[in-house]
Specification:
The chain has 139 residues and is α/β, with parallel strands linked by helices. The protein has one domain: P-loop containing nucleotide triphosphate hydrolases (Rossmann fold), CATH 3.40.50. It has four helices and seven strands. The structure holds adenosine-5'-triphosphate and magnesium ion.
Length: 139
C-alpha cells in the first residue's frame, strides 16, 4: 500500500507503473467517485510517452491514445449500462490488440475482465491524500 499525497503523486505513480507495461496488459482502476482513477490514467499515458490530453471517456465511450510506446485504450465502465453494451463496442477486439487497456470502474462488470487483469485500488483518506494498492482480484 502506498500513500499518495497529491494529484501529482498519483500521476507519478501511474507514470512509474507505465515503465513496466507490455502490450496486452489490462489495468482495472477501482475506487469511488473522485478517487483519482483518471489522474492515474493521465500518468500512465504520459509514462508511455504520449502527450495526449487525458480525460474520462464520455460520449465516445473509449478513448484511444496512439502516440506513445504502446497504444492505450481507456474505458470507463461507469458510463456503460450493461456488459452487453461494452461487448458491442468491440471489447474482445480491444483485448486482442498488443495495447494497454485501462478501465475505470472495472468492478462494475468484473466478469468482462480477463484473468490476467492487474487490479489497482485507490481510496481517499482525506481530500488530498489517497492510498493505492495492487490487489489480486476485485473483491
Ligand atoms: N492524492 C490525490 N490523487 C488524485 N487526485 C487527487 C488527490 N488529491 C486530490 N485529488 C483530486 O481528486 C480528483 C480526482 O479526480 P479523478 O477524475 O481522477 O477521479 P476519478 O476516480 O476518475 O473519478 P470518477 O469516478 O468520477 O471517474 C481531482 O479533482 C484531483 O485534483
Ligand atoms: Mg474518472
Amino acid at each position: 500500500m502506498t500513500l499518495l499525497k497529491s494529484e501529482i503523486d498519483t500521476q507519478n505513480w501511474g507514470q512509474d507503473l507505465a515503465e513496466s507495461l507490455t502490450g496486452g496488459t489490462v489495468i482495472a482502476l477501482c475506487g469511488n467517485l473522485g478517487a483519482g482513477k483518471t489522474q492515474m490514467t493521465k500518468g500512465i499515458v504520459r509514462g508511455l510517452g504520449s502527450s495526449a490530453d487525458v480525460a474520462s471517456p464520455t460520449f465516445t465511450l473509449v478513448h484511444e491514445y496512439m502516440d506513445g510506446r504502446l497504444p492505450v485504450f481507456h474505458f470507463d465502465f461507469y458510463r456503460m449500462e450493461s456488459a452487453g453494451e461494452v461487448l458491442s463496442l468491440g471489447w474482445d477486439e480491444y483485448l486482442d490488440e498488443k495495447a494497454v487497456v485501462i478501465v475505470e470502474w472495472a468492478d462494475r462488470f468484473a466478469n468482462l475482465m480477463p484473468e490476467h487483469t492487474r487490479w489497482i485500488k485507490i481510496e481517499a483518506l482525506t481530500p488530498d491524500t489517497r492510498t493505492v494498492e495492487e490487489v489480486h482480484s476485485h473483491s
